[in-house]
Every structure is written in structure tokens, then in C-alpha cells.
Amino acid sequence: MGYISMKRPFMHPCFDCNIIQTIKKFSTKLSAAAGSVYLTADQGVWGSPEESNKLYNNLYEIIPGLKTFREEYCTER
């Protein structure tokens, strides 16, 4: 008596590659988005006004000339 073959039906060889590439792209984008949200939450962007003020002060210390640039070019006259 014969048996039923459990082989996969024939598919083009690139079919599996496309699925793997799609999963890699999606997971990379998801990781970047999740990392961005985590980093901004950790730094205080989504927190209280005091945490946001602390973040801006840290940025002013890290980037020289940022505060004077902001005062010179970004204020209403």
C-alpha cells in the first residue's frame, strides 16, 4: 500500500527568501521605532515639564553654542 507524501508543494526558490527579507525589514523597523520610543522616554521627552527642562539643559551642555543659537535665531522679534 502506498503512503501519502508530506512534501511541500513546489514553490519558487525565491518565495522563502522574500518572506525572510520581509520579516527582517519589519523587525528592523520595529526595533528602530521601539528604540526611539524607549530612548525618548528614558531621556524625559514624554515626562513632566521639569524632566523636559532637564533634557534641554543636558542638550545645552552637550552641544556647544546651541543655547546662543536658539536665543539668536529662534525667538520672536
Describe the structure in your own words:
The structure is a single chain. The chain is mainly α. The relative contact order is 0.05. The chain has a domain at 48-77. The chain has helices at 13-43, 49-62, 66-73. Helix content is 69%, strand content 0%. It has three helices and no strands. It is elongated and about 75 Å long. The longest helix is centred in the middle third of the chain and has 31 residues, at 13-43. The termini are far apart. The mean pLDDT is 80.
Low-confidence parts, pLDDT < 50 over ≥5 residues? none
The major sheet is characterized as: none
Helix/sheet category = mainly alpha
Mean pLDDT across all amino acids: 80
Beta-strand residue fraction: under 5%
Number of strand segments: 0
Helix content: 55-70%
Order of helices and strands: HHH
Q: Rg to the nearest angstrom?
A: 26 Å
Tell me the number of helical segments per DSSP (H or I, 4 or more residues long).
3
Instruction: Note the overall shape.
Output: elongated
Q: How widely separated are the two ends?
A: 92 Å
GO cellular component, one term: MICOS complex
Keywords: Membrane, Mitochondrion, Mitochondrion inner membrane
Subcellular location: Mitochondrion inner membrane
Family: Belongs to the MICOS complex subunit Mic13 family.
